[in-house]
Amino acid sequence: FSLTSLTTESHIRPCFSFIQNLIFFVTSDVCVLQNQLMHESISMLQKKEKAIQEENNMLSKKIKEKDNTVGQQVEWHQQNQVPTSTSFLLQPHPCLNIG
Asked: Highest taxon of the source (predicted)?
């Protein structure tokens, strides 16, 4: 080995070590940022899920209320319906009797 090669190697090693450390820290920071973004995304999706569930519950309640209202209307119409006799419907009107 020559003196210049030793000097060059001694300069390269610290630089190489510095670059390795820099890569490690940058990679660590990237992982931390990725984890933060994933956590924020999960949190946002959970909030959306909760809002959708609340809306679904509200719509289910409205459907039940409508079903009850329709059922009550049908029951009211059935109770207040005027009974008609089929024999009354089949008899000809006296004015129309030509004979």
From this structure: Eukaryota
Number of domains the chain is built from:
1
Which pTM value belongs to this model? 0.49
Q: Which domain holds residue 16?
A: 3-80
**What pLDDT, on a 0 to 100 scale, did the predictor assign at position 3?**
47
Answer whether residue 91 is part of any domain.
Answer: no
Give domain status of residue 86, yes or no. Answer: no
> What one-character-per-residue DSSP string does 17-51 give?
HHHHHHHHHHHHHHHHHHHHHHHHHHHHHHHHHHH
